[in-house]
Amino acid sequence: MKRLRLDRLAGQLLAAPISPAARLSRPSSISRSIPQTCRHASLYNTQPCQRRHQSTVVSQAPLEEQKQEEEEYLVQEPEDGEPTPEDTLRSGPLPSPHPSRAASSAKLAALHARLSLSPKIPIETLARALVDPSADAHPKYNNANLAYVGSTVLHYHTSETLITRYPRLPMSILFTAMKGYAGNPALHQVARAWGVESAAAPGEEVDPGLLQYDPMKPTVVMNKWGYVRAETIESEKFKSGKGLSGRVMYSSNPFGESSAAKALPNFEVDDGRNSKTMLLQNAPANAHANFVRAVIGAVYMHCGRDAAKNFIKSHFLSRTLDLSNLFEFKLPTRELARLCARENFEPAVARLESETGRLSRTPVFVVGIYSGRDKLGEAAGPDLDSARVAAAINALKAWYLYSPGQVSVPSDTFAEDAAPWKPAYVDIGEIIS
Amino acid sequence: MEARPALRPLTTLLGSCSRAGQTRLQSSTRRTKKALKLPPHPSFLVSAAEADHITYNPPSAAPSVYHTPFKFLPPSDPRRQAQLSSLLRGSTGLPSTAAASSTTTPEIPALEEKHQVPEPKFNVTREQVAEMRALRAADPMKWSVVRLAEKFECSKLFVMICCKASAQHQAKERERKEAIKARWGPIRTQAREDRKKRRTLLLRSEI
């Protein structure tokens, strides 16, 4: 995988000054006509990945055209020539509250204090983290860039923790666990637990301490994951690569979902065929999750790597996810037999440990699976066969859920006085697939 | 409730001895309470000598899947060394809980053959496979999968991997099965459906 240059990606977040003059001179969402679509096009080509709603139409412009449009936009001279800069100056309300109002918001101050954020993180950044791209499409005033930085940092720490803590998890369970820790539903819950409320509708007049998003407007979905293969587009087109190895190879997001088409900027919004894939399923969850990612991004940008790692550890990785409930087997006895053959164990034998009420209506059989003299798993069931299957499932879970305990993760070596990296134990792979 | 089966033969015996034709039932509260009276678990009995002690009597529970068996520990794991010494001690006759829980005693019988995963025997030669295919192609009714498996002493799965019945025979078999299923009444159909659902739940460890 290509190395991620976070400093390069996120440098403009700290460099771009938010000057009230520039803020005032940008046009409102209502007065934008042609520049809006062009600006959307440019926005959609520069940002990680997007999903649009059917109601809006994107016009794809070549790169040089976009640059031109952006310049035109910056100097506030649309092609029509109808609205003058003075008109656009105060022709309508701003799409999101002015950054200068952040300092006077009690909700923002309370949120800042509740999260015990460092004073290095300005309250204006927290206010910006609460503005979803659907509320304000301008990339300098919404949280898209911060959320992208935050999502990469979060996915990195989640995956390294999961792999070192559970080195034998099957790939599908690993993907699901990633989603359980860093997916939209989990981050939505975290945002709710942080006490973040959403505004009824985004606008200039709302409190900056409220999460602002519009479920009917295009927004940004953070699902990009490192390097996307060129073949991904082809595999998406021909519906191939849907198996697990295909998910490992071609998936462009950390949860193993094939969202390649969504990750690419070639949108066909007018085409009814793929409009469903372009539609955002749960807009509130996405907005809340983006806010949480943006807070992580802000912690990373303002306080550094270690603070971000501690923040992620205390707010996300400390959550409980019962991995043993994620498993669903197809042929557990065969899988266990293959495992024993692969690891050179004696073949697994099922033994009846105890039973009660064999001739009654509700018998209970306790079956243990043994390999040689060692017991691998044990389970009770209402008949011999289901007890044996349950015991095989327990044995397989005991294999998959092996944990070496508290071991160091690769990011521990980032510290200056860190000990040299000792390779962690990671299993060779799937037993049957 | 556990005292009842033990008591019943005794009471019937007594009843038959004293008054023939009469059995003493637990139909009164006093008799029921008396029958259900069980001695407390030994861990709850506090002797006068040890006044300060901790009662350890956990309820019986299924073993946790997060407890990795000794065999599944990788060689790099420190727990392997720690358990190995206790296992060795257990084999020399010293009491050891880890050894008792992770090793089997030889008297536990294995389940029947039909409940085990069959071991592949690799006994069928290439010529025998050709013969098997010829037999199956010639008369699939006579040489069914079960009979072929018996003849060549291999598993049914192996026979099905080797030979494929003709489409005609497959269609006939499917028709026969459909006819059998059509004869099922609502109760049996429902029972089959329920069995499938229970199987799904079992594979998800939900029952």
UniProtKB/TrEMBL annotation, chain A:
Residues 46-59 have a biased composition (Polar residues). SUPFAM superfamilies: dsRNA-binding domain-like (SSF54768), RNase III domain-like (SSF69065). Residues 46-107 are annotated as: Disordered. It is found in: Mitochondrion. PROSITE patterns: RNASE_3_2. Belongs to the ribonuclease III family. Mitochondrion-specific ribosomal protein mL44 subfamily. This is Large ribosomal subunit protein mL44. The lineage of its organism: Eukaryota, Fungi, Dikarya, Ascomycota, Pezizomycotina.
TrEMBL record, chain B:
Residues 96-105 have a biased composition (Low complexity). Residues 90-118 are annotated as: Disordered. It comes from the Eukaryota. The keyword Translocase does not apply. InterPro entries: Ribosomal_mL58. One of its GO terms (cellular component) is ribosome. Keywords: Ribonucleoprotein, Ribosomal protein. Signal peptide: none annotated. This is Ribosomal protein.
